[in-house]
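User: Second chain of the day. Same drill as before.
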Amino acid sequence: MSILKNDWQPLLEDEFQKPYYLELRQFLKKEYSEHSVFPEPQNIFNALHFTPFHNLKVVILGQDPYHGKGQAHGLCFSVQEGITPPPSLVNIFKELQSDLECPIPDHGCLTAWAKQGVLLLNTVLTVRKGEPASHRGKGWELFTDRVIEIINQSHSPTVFLLWGKHAAEKTSMITNAHHLILQAPHPSPFSAHKGFWGCRHFSQANAYLVSQGVEPVDWNLSATD
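Assistant: Same format as last time:
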């Protein structure tokens, strides 16, 4: 049975049979049965489901999902409708407003970006409630590194937005000259003032896409309010 329902499946199907993933799957079965784990199982792969490989334009890397109830739904930095946007997401919206004059939306759901080709990928796809980093080192990093490797091998121009030290660690994996890497500090309140604000990554990403003959991303979320 296919785990992924689009063109990611043939690209990643070998991963699902590897020993690390089979161990990860058993770990997750135990975790979901014994603890509150986010996101809901059906949302774990939403980043890949909402952004098919053939539609990929931009990659934004996060760490692990939000660990509060109702927040995480499989897209990094995004929260479900009706949930107050966390501080890092608020800072992303502030930079977007400064960069492209996009109004700050009254929600934090980034699904509209994902559907346009923005892969909102956490490097770890699950987390235990109230315990950040609780699922790190269990195998997810191997899986998401493979996703990055596949994208790197593609000749379709892709912009990587790498915010913070954790995301910057993936720079060495991105060697394809067709791709653009943009780095900045993390949008967290602890570091946004160190260079995330004013990085103008959204306009730079679009300028690169246009220069490569690719339709730019409409970053304005107000239409989805």
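The chain has eight helices and six strands.

User: Great, on to the next one.
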